Structures
1.
Amino acid sequence: MRPSFFFSAYRQLKNPTSRLKGQIFNARFRMKNLELNRLKTQLLFAQDAANQLDASLDQSQIKKMIPHRAPFLMVDNVELINLELRLIQATRWIDPKDPVFEGHFPNNPIYPGVLQQESMFQTALILMYFLLNETVVPPLEEQVTNAVGTRIYDVFHLSAVRPDDLMTIRCCIAEYDSLVATAIVQIAVNQQIVTVGKGEFFVF
């Protein structure tokens, strides 16, 4: 055992503050895992979420709020918004003619997980627009909210997404300020949960 490692471990054992910090970190880590594990089998929120707003926003309105454009605009419609609970529900139809299926994979087409994650991020960014502007009304003119992903805590791909599937993307902004937001996002196809993830992004 290296001396530096030994003395580092010894200081942690003798320092209650270090032990306590470690216990808090481990507890938070377990809570995050429990949170995502629950969402592998349980919808993030019910269709009749309290105080929901039927949004019915299409891509022409979405493009006024986020900077993404075809072929990398990965959200088709926004169906529900709830600012009080920081919730949003959106959809993305998987076009069988998408050229990605020519290589992923021939004779076994599966929509890539990384593109699912992009749909999740864009849905979260749309919700951030409404939260930061404290409104559920889409802008009449372009008023884009920019962001970059900074951290993915965990993502679980539970089942394959196939051509012609309709992804329902449910998102909750767990915490945010004017710069950083943490989102919990879930994708379902025909009410079957296929992907769950939690990540962080920087808003500017």
2.
Amino acid sequence: MSEFDVVAVPNAGRDAAEQAKAYSSPFAPRELRLDDGTVLEIPPHPSLRLLDDDALAELEALNFELESYDREPDRVIPAQTIKDKAGNELELPAETIRGPLKTNPYRKTNADGSVTVMNPPYEVRVAQIALGAEDYATLRAGKVNGRRGSAADVWRAWNDQGLEVAERQKADPKSDGSSVVVAPVSASDSE
């Protein structure tokens, strides 16, 4: 191997999506069929971190950009004194919890006091990143059930996927949310 040989770099997001598809996993990409028969592949929801490497980098850039957007006021929790099981006093320090982002719409107050609204909206940008520019343009140029394709179609697929994962989790006896009763752990093992 010379210093000029090309080495294939693995793409973990793409590889995970292909494996999920091969095994009919709820994390597999979804197909969105346009009225003209065109099929677009919608990757799993970006929060699952299964996007293509380039899309994941774009999503990280968007999340970093969001740090500069307006937030609700911080929540300040004053110092507190509490007692443990033995009656000993414990001092909890004061804590400030950063306020959540102001949404609907996401906005940024500029130094001059003017406000800029995120455009296109956050949901559109996430769908654009997940699909890629070419597939998103195909979606917008096409129709889904007689109406113009949009980011809402992508989010609908992600919502369906989330419901499927929740149902699967609920039915899984190894999951904390399942209906199967798990035997209690003895006190000596749980401390």
3.
Amino acid sequence: MEGHLPVGDLPPGLYYADLTLGNRVTTVKLLVQEHKRDSGTHSRYLYTTDLSLSEEEIEEAWRMRWEIEELHRDVKALGLEDSSFWRRERLRGYLTIFTIVTNVVRELVEELNLRSVEAFLRFVERHLGGPPGLMKIFKLP
């Protein structure tokens, strides 16, 4: 819009913005933060339509949301997303095993200073090998 800064040009801070979609206008609270990484300083843009949230609450909501995204990525990397269940007991058993496997793998990724579940699976295949067919359980690139 004329006379307004593009979001990418906003300095760190808390802002309110009106977003228009068709004839509907929604006000959002936008938190702009700077983060330093090895590759330099990067901006992060967190937003919410709940205007009562504090900066800390916005950060926490996005942190939890990001953890869910990471969980979905890890589930896909482990090949655990394609399962069908006919009985409730089977579903409960699968969820228990799934939770254990996912948590153990995530902890190993952290302990081994790896970047992702995919890197862990490559590590296991490269260093541990295992019985023939063991690694076919997981979907490796």
4.
Amino acid sequence: MAALVTLLVGFTLIAAASAYRLKRLTNPQRRRPSCAGQDTHLMIALGSGGHTTEMLTMLMRAVVTEPRIKQRLCWNKDYSHRTWVVSSGDVISVNRARHFESTVAKHLGEQSVDYDIVAVPRAREIHQPLYTTPISCLRCISACCHLLLRHTALNRDAIDFPDVILCNGPATATILIFTSLLLRFFNVRGCSSRRKMRTVYIESWARVKRLSLSGRLLKHVVDRFIVQWPQLQQAAGGRAEYVGVLV
């Protein structure tokens, strides 16, 4: 009996400490901006199909077509390196990411060489049997972990962990976010203490009244949760930021 009580107490303490640690990691009040002038590594997850279209439309507006010129992003200056993450076999998203980079470079009159495109296994294929999904998810987690740990330089002359991870779903992007959270939880190679891998989730414009499954899973764990319709603010448990339509 004493051993059982000890195990229960130990489990309770570990669970409480883990919950406290997770809350601190994702607390919006603890956000601190990166130092001005510091190189920023942006990772963008393209979810294929409509998700890719929305993401690229939002980025094009932020970089090129935003009418308030002063609020446009300086693509090559604000984000010194970009990593585009696509699902394996998604050739369309690969081509569209390359076209986006070349279009922006042409618009800015600069060369767009500071980016790479990486494919990870899909978390779940279309029409894939549910009983095989855990296996494919594990493959996706392993690939995402390898991707995030690929660049861990501690000097400013080399590529480090991504500073910001931007996604709008679906499954593969969700796995990427949870993998980054796991690495931050254990402060692997100082990623949490160095404020790396801050996560931003943008809910789809098509979601007007109800959050998507990805949104419901991520609303309490991402650093910023952005919605495009005011009625979704309450649906995200008070953590959502309504910024208007972005597409």
